[in-house]
Amino acid sequence: MVVLKKMNASTLMETLIATVLVMVIFMVASLILNNMFSNSIKNNRRAITSKINAIEYLYINDKITLPYQDDYEDWMITMEPLKNTSKIGLKATNEVTGKTIEKIFYKR
Fold this sequence. Notes:
Layout: H1 12-42, H2 46-60, E1 68-72, E2 75-81, E3 87-94, E4 100-106
């Protein structure tokens, strides 16, 4: 006949404490991930950067003239010559967040 060995089991209080610790760790991890994802979505500037590059390309190829203004989604884009220089300033301002992107390039 097989002799059954007595196993030490954890108490109910130890099990509850371990469960609470696992839940707290899961909660903190989910808050960190949520914050990272929301920041990456909020700071996504690929679309406006692409639009700025397209406007620069059109200006270089004489398809648009200065001064230039355009609305693109929440962004107000302006392009004008800088004073006393041979440079062109292109500025995009987000009307919701107030963030700006500036680009300077030389005239042809």
